[in-house]
Amino acid sequence: MNGRTQWIDWAKTIGIWLVVFGHIPGNHLAVSEFIYAFHMPLFFFISGYLAKSRSVVETARSGVVRLLIPYAMFYVLTWLWWYFFGFLRHPEWFSHLPAFQAALVQPLFGMLFGAGYGTSLSNMINVPLWFLVGLFNVSVAFSVVDALKSWPMKFMCAALLSGIPYVLTSRGIDLLFSLDSALMALPFYVGGKYAAEAGLVERCAPAWADKKTEGYLRPLVIALSFAAVGLVAAANGRVDINHVSYGKHPLLFYFGGLAGIVLVWAVSECCARWIYGPTVFTISRGAIVILALHAIVTSLFLALLRTLGVDQGLLLNAAISAAVVIICVPVIEFVESEAPRLMGNRKAAPG
Fold first, then answer.
1. How many CB atoms sit inside 10 A of residue 58's CB?
2. What's the half-sphere exposure (Cβ side, CA atoms, 13 Å) at 296?
3. Overall pTM surpassing 0.90 (yes/no)
4. Which residues pair with 269 in a beta bridge?
5. Is residue 143 a contact partner of residue 56, using CB atoms and an 8 Å limit?
6. What is the CA radius of gyration of the chain?
7. Please, are residues 195 and 41 in contact by the beta-carbon 8 Å criterion?
8. Phi, psi dihedrals of residue 245, rounded to the nearest 5°
């Protein structure tokens, strides 16, 4: 594996850990605001970084295989879990609706609407899966933007498109199929694509390797970007691409997301120097599996803690998140070998 691949794999590993961590109930508000400031922008950035320039039709065809088919399959699988351990165990939660509507119709509409929240007609039973739908849309949107000749024009078009969700949300209008979330995230995707084509990571390599600066440059970048994310999170409040929530100001949202991306990149560069192996690569390749299943695994951990009478805390939640990610590794390996369509036919990790 080359250095570029290794930092990407570490960034995805850190990112999916943050997703799991951010979804554990009971986290302190400041911790949640910090994580939400950049964990989803990070994944859109990485997706743009790895994206190939294709036509709209080719992008959509690839997205169906790599994103929408896994979305539908994981949704159905997790619906089975929800039906037996949610609907049947807690019928009082759905007593206001006819059983058929609550058990089948609303979850089906939740899948078809493709948004990470419920409506009067739908119930999204696996909320994190919205990201796959949003990523499909943002990749198709970028394939349109990518037809422009110059990067300044691409950035300008992306900026204009990203303003649409802000205008619509301020008027109480939500777009289904995570279209508004996709447009909100488009600048991060475009930024990732530009970073790859401009070779920004490679340009930083000499500074990282310089003996005069390597001892303090990475720690300095990590400290400054960490402080920037913290200040933005404190000033801007909770942001959420799923719910098209920019916090108090859209510019702070984008600045916080960019600072968080730099933070994870710098940390990933450090991690890639210290340790790298098939496990990190597997987590990176199988992030889609962890995204789809972590809520179930986390719920089992939390049920065990309640049974044992153990109180949650920040460090325990962080440890649970790491355990959930590690537990999913053999699941990823099984899916890679036995059901690759669930992962969009992604390649298996090397032995």
1. 12
2. 22
3. yes
4. none
5. yes
6. 20
7. no
8. -110, 115
